[in-house]
Write a structure and sequence with these properties.
The protein is mainly beta and 106 residues long. It has one domain. The chain contains no helices and eight strands.
Length: 106
């Protein structure tokens, strides 16, 4: 959504085999000279992954023409496609997961 008062808001839904797996509510927030991407995750029944007053936060690292780097999360535009790279840590191991998106009409 367009920025208002230094904040952009967005949502994401992950579907698999015709079923909603989870959704996210996102805020891109300006804080002085930098930005943060703040996320809250929800199960299909809207129960939250994070505690009520907690967010998953990715601080801004850098920006180029078609790429924005946050600590642990990167977004890259490639024509009409968007590639996201997410570092996921589980049981002391970190892996880089790639998500590919193509713009489509509604």
């Amino acid at each position: 959504m367009p920025a208002i008062d230094g904040t952009m808001v967005g949502t994401f839904r992950f579907w698999q085999d015709g079923k909603l797996i989870f959704s996210e509510f996102m805020n891109l927030i300006q804080d002085g000279d930098t930005f943060y991407l703040k996320l809250k995750h929800f199960n299909p029944d809207l129960s939250g992954w994070e505690e009520k007053d907690e967010w998953t936060i990715f601080p801004l690292v850098g920006v180029e023409e078609n790429t924005i780097w946050f600590h642990g999360f990167t977004m890259k535009r490639e024509g009409d496609k968007m590639v996201l790279y997410l570092e996921i840590s589980e049981n002391g191991e970190t892996q880089l997961v790639e998500f590919n998106y193509t713009k489509k009409s509604l």
